Amino acid sequence: MSKKILGIDLGGTSVKLAILTEEGEVQQKWSIETNTLDGGKQIVPDIIESVHHHLDLYQMDATDFVGIGMGSPGAVDRIKGTVTGAFNLNWKKKQEVKKTIENALQIPFFIDNDANVAALGEKWKGAGADNKDVVFITLGTGVGGGIIANGGLVHGVADSGGEIGHITIDPGGFECSCGKRGCLETVASATGILNLARKHSDEFAGDSTLKNMIDDGRQISAKVVFDQAKEEDEFAKMVVDRFAYFLGLACSHIGNMLNPQYIVIGGGVSNAGEFLIEQVRHYFEEHSFPNVRKTTKIRRAELGNDAGVIGAGYLVKQNQTHSA
Description:
By secondary structure, this protein is α/β, with parallel strands linked by helices. It folds into two domains: 4-120, Nucleotidyltransferase, domain 5 (2-Layer Sandwich); 129-302, Nucleotidyltransferase, domain 5 (2-Layer Sandwich). The chain has helices spanning 37-40, 43-57, 97-105, 114-125, 190-201, 209-215, 222-230, 234-258, 274-287, 290-295, 307-323, and strands spanning 4-10, 14-21, 26-33, 65-72, 75-77, 82-84, 95-96, 109-113, 134-139, 143-149, 152-153, 262-266, 297-300. A five-stranded mixed beta sheet has the order 3-2-1-4-8, sandwiched between helices. Strands 11-10-9-12-13 form a five-stranded mixed beta sheet, with helices on both faces. A three-stranded antiparallel beta sheet has the order 5-6-7.
């Protein structure tokens, strides 16, 4: 029987787990709640217990697996298999993730940053079409990213390669949680589109449901802004245009530096669909070097919530290849 891979996508609210074939086909998947209480010390034991339970359920053991891959938030030391400063997990101190999981499950374990792992998933089985040059941008509460060049992830000298959310795109603009101003994250995330809506609502004089909602102090979300833009609300259209401009400009910088085959846009905000992607393409093409404009394509992500577990599977495959 062919061997399997266990993929784990560790998030602040849930841990997604999947058993995959070596070809990347998801055969079983499940999730557990992330218990962040008491410094998150129960997270890894909960994962181990859940894996044991499911292996018993499927009548499998360690010998059926070539490896375990995991994507985690925070600062990940890929060699030592530790995670530090994953604040949404309540992990303030260094966590010995690899050592604990390998000792308990007796299966080789590999870990990387969650955005990098999701990038591997989209590259392997999603919109990246298994091309060796793919950049992945994930638009959520913030903006994450992963860069795959010549088949491998770009980590940089201190594992800060691929911090796409912190490209300065609007000098002197909104303050970012990183301490800088004008980062892409402040204008092209779920939070960013609300920043733009509130900033520009004072300047807009026409009739607009979205503007009225802001003026009345009502709660708005990224989805509300995109929905109103699709309904031809003039102010919402203006806000989405600014959002697409900044994201398209950032994509042009990435394209001009790396000339990947695909820039893949995912994350919750990408659920706005082709309506958004078309506008991003327009600004990307306007600001790209001519040959980049012709050869680098912008695509919407395809794997949704499965990108993390599939990418974790690819992490195992990559490490197998390197150690072979």
